[in-house]
Please model this.
Amino acid sequence: MSTTQRFFNGAAGRSARRPVRVRRGLGTPGTRTGSGWRRRPTASSALAWLAVVVLAIAVAGVLAWWEQRPLEVPDGFSEDAVVAEMVRVVDGDTIVVSMEGEDERVRLLNIDTPETVHPTEPVECGGPEASAAISQLLSPGDVIVLEFDQQLRDRYDRLLAAVFVEDVFVNERMAREGWGEPAYYAPNDRFLAVVEQAWAQAREENAGVFSPQLVC
Model:
């Protein structure tokens, strides 16, 4: 036997004895790339993405409805009470609210705070402090409840109302902090007694305009 024949016979024998490598765990058929195997998209993956998209659309719809939902009067108020959204503070006893898409100026019933924006009168002592006090109670976007008395509007066409935010009666609180002096304009006296009591307490405790620290 020649040297060439012995070489080919030996090579053939080694090739026959070499184990065959088997690629395992490939699962579903794929496409061979230069760096390995790439799995083809499956139907379950497409369904999962579709579910995510549908859920996102549903959540967006719920949020849009929540933001535009009609405001409802909470329990514990009268049948005549209405809900509004706070827009801004004008001064210590006047605010602007949004009702059914329209802005309304509201004058708080049975209190009178020092003037800050009167067209013909100067800023009164305690006026800026009163405006700051009510701004601490009411912020733009707050949902508030308005309760009314016999006469709904004053000569300036402002709504006359008691204002509630969460569990705070704003008219009473302004009197209690010494900024809202009791005021009676017939025939509206529904909240007058509560305001008078709060004002008397403020006087006893030297709060607000009664404070010796208020220098004007």
Observations:
- Confidence is low (pLDDT under 50) at residues 2-20, 22-34.
- Residues 43-68 form the longest helix (26 residues).
